[in-house]
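Researcher: Quick test of sequence recovery. Tokens follow.
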């Protein structure tokens, strides 16, 4: 009588669970308890925004006497708050329509300029060999630790007096007025955004397969064509992630716009007008809630429309392979 023992081929043994730390973490995050916790956090995080939206639709008497949650038992809604905030003619109204246009005029170029310059710089630092390339990358990376507030006074002096070395004027003062001051805000936001944008895009571009670049060079493509036809389509997730961050930062900015654009009606963004409403008309809650919700609509649209790229862009350059 003979007995046989089962044999297991090397490399075909099944494992009971994930061996790596990443696998164990992924399994825990996909569990029912983790999903439930995520839903609870999302609901709690959304409640203030939902309450703000409900409050912006309630009449003045209701919002000043009862909480927003009472709207479910005594529903009274109106669009008068938005009409007064956006198009009201009185001095007490928000008159946010023109400020809304100013915010768009400030934000869109302040997002596009850093993305364009940073993508070009990141490609050059990643795939073009030139003397001092590594030191240039280190210098750009180090600029991230410089607080924005430290650069405001030198930058404002640069705009107002220009650049003079040994009595020789290298660049005259800008002397911009009214809508021309938008250029100062674009320049400032672009300078402040470039270090982080170049760093993130460099990490992404440097990990693109070198075979693609070599094949393009064999076919006779130069750096401009490689960048336009190969690199740009592949870095779309990273560009979207940086664009979202930059858009939110510029749209919600008050300090930079107030310093370089001023507080006039021609150039002031939404944040400046909302600060004035909160300071001088703090008792007009119905207008403040409507104005606040107007200011967050555009960032919400931008984020939701680009969210499919957001996670991929955040993880860009974090792992190899």
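Model:
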């Amino acid at each position: 009588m003979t007995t046989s023992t089962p044999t297991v081929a090397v490399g075909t043994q099944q494992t009971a669970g994930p061996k790596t730390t990443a696998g164990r973490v992924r399994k825990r995050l996909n569990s029912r308890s983790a999903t439930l916790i995520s839903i609870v956090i999302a609901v709690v995080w959304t409640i203030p925004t939902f309450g703000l939206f409900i409050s912006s639709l309630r009449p003045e008497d209701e919002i000043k006497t009862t909480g927003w949650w009472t709207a479910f038992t005594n529903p009274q809604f109106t669009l008068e708050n938005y009409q007064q905030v956006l198009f009201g003619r009185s001095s007490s109204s928000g008159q946010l329509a023109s400020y809304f246009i100013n915010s768009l005029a400030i934000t869109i170029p302040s997002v596009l300029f850093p993305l364009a310059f940073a993508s070009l710089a990141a490609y050059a630092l990643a795939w073009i060999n030139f003397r001092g390339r590594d030191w240039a990358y280190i210098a750009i990376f180090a600029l991230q630790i410089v607080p924005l507030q430290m650069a405001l006074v030198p930058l404002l002096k640069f705009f107002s007096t220009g650049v003079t070395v040994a009595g020789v004027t290298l660049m005259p003062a800008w002397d911009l007025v009214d809508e021309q001051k938008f250029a100062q805000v674009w320049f400032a936001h672009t300078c402040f955004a470039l270090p982080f944008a170049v760093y993130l895009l460099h990490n992404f571009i440097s990990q693109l397969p070198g075979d693609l670049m070599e094949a393009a060079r064999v076919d006779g493509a130069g750096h401009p064509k490689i960048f336009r036809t190969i690199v740009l389509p592949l870095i779309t997730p990273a560009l979207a992630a940086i664009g979202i961050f930059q858009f939110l930062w510029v749209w919600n900015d008050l300090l930079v716009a107030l310093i370089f654009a001023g507080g006039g009606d021609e150039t002031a963004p939404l944040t400046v007008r909302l600060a004035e409403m909160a300071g001088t008309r703090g008792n007009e809650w119905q207008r403040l809630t409507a104005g606040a919700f107007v200011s967050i609509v555009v960032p919400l649209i931008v984020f939701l429309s680009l969210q499919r790229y957001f996670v991929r862009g955040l993880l860009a350059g974090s792992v190899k392979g």
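The mean pLDDT is 80.
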